[in-house]
Amino acid sequence: MLIPQLQNFLTTPITQKNRQNQSRLTVLFWYSLSLTFAVGYILMGLRQAFTSKYIVSDDAREYISWMYRYLNPELFPGDLIADYFESVTPIGYSILYKIIAALGIDLTFFSKIFPILLGLITTSYCFAVSMQILPVPMVGFIASLLLNQSLCLHDDLFSGTPRDFIYPLFLAFLYYSIRSSVLGILIVLALQCLMYPIIAFVDLLILFLRLFHWQNGQIAISHHRKDFILFVTAIIITGILILPYTIQSSQFGPTITAAVARTMPDYWRGGRVSYFSHNIISYWFDGRDSGFFALIAPPQLLFGLLLPILLKFQSYFPLTKQLKDEVKIFLQVVIASLIMFFTAHASAFKLHWPSRYTHHTFKMILALAAAISITLILDAIFRWSRQYGRQILILGTIMILGAGLILYPSSLKVFPKTPYVEGQVPILYNFLQKQPQNIVIASTSEEADNIPIFAQRTILVGKEYALPIHTKYYAQFRKRMIDLINAQYSEDINQIKDFIQKYHVTFWLLERSAFLPEYITKNTWLQQYQPAAQQANAKLQKALPVLATLINTCAVLETDNLVLLQTECIKNVTKT
Questions:
Q1: Coil, strand or helix: which one is 524?
Q2: What is the pLDDT at residue 554?
Q3: Exposure check for the chain: N or C terminus, fewer CB within 10 A?
Q4: Is 285 strand, coil or helix?
Q5: pTM here?
């Protein structure tokens, strides 16, 4: 009796005939279990987020820093970095944080807690989509479990950036597409246009592909007028909502061409982007920004690749008969994603990184397909064990499967892998916050990346903000960086003074190791700015730069590794 009961509990579909209280309890159990694991994973990630006041998601520094203008419009006056990231931030994301600021909620705090809601929505829609394709509640649990584990292995849920919205919105789009809910589709599409616009192009292609179906061995076009009306309406909504963002983000355009990018160290290994690779397989397959199969983990997701094979042998896997026809949406997502992937490659980099069109969508489809594949195989084993009386086999399989899926995170050194960074010098942030709002800090230290978010003050340059995408922005950024390197390692006090005057620098933040040769030679970021880096290294071999001799005289704040110089003091120096 044990095996039939287990099979009924684990792999029996919920159909119109058996929709009774017991079945509803089964659905509720698996859905509740899905939410439990989701909340557990999220809380594990958030535990790190609140261990210090000065902790924030790595990429959130780019998007949230400038939004403190919503709380104080006087912040970041004439700030190139703040203006640029304001221009490339999706409109809906900006509106959301403007509302949060109006409510008096700290923006960094909100970026940390919002993943709770997004994670629950993602889990719910993942469960719902799976039930629409194969109405076995355990499938929904496995799919959401695998997806949540995957999200916790990369910064796709805790990033504090617009991409956090991809998963809940795209899964919602799939759900309403399967349900043929016109209103639901259009609302979700509109939200995607506002929150993460590029995925809306995948949505449109899916809607286009759904105008066709396979009939009698050939492609047939839909005869339903409403399908075409939906597609045209979706195009109009997408155009209306994305056009303002396109105009907004173009003020620092155009984007760098692929030909130019190939000549820039920023786009090769060790660069800020690391887009290109001499390994052609890596470039097309698993390159973080260029590959179509990038960042696919955990390995259990690869079970999803078995689904087409299992469907070819339906006689061995009887549960396949319960699969709904809407399983075809998996193929539609793959085709739409690949079309956008190759289009993004062809138009580099006007449509952002190509991997953004497959990394996220493939991860969701693989999680759903893997859950279905695992369930189909488990059901086949159930039937085989009942036929041949191998109860120990099925019990062992269930135990191994359950342990493998649930305990997988415990086999990792770090789980979840959160993208949080911690500011190491609160004394610096507190000091700068007390200074006038129009100050400018120049530095080659990575600690400068934390100043805008924690001190709400302008920096001249910063590694985190060195995105070589839009020409008008990066040309200015690169010029600033080269001028900074030249001045920092100059033997001429007048060159330093000219630099200070040109960029209105108020403070100069130095690492104590900044005047050691290896500080330059081993710094992959500085090495991108040639010939300035080589020239600086050559100068260090000959003599100590002027700035190094002014540390004791002009320092206004010192820590174990950092020294903050006041430029007014430097400008008063008369000798080299």
A1: coil
A2: 94
A3: N
A4: coil
A5: 0.94
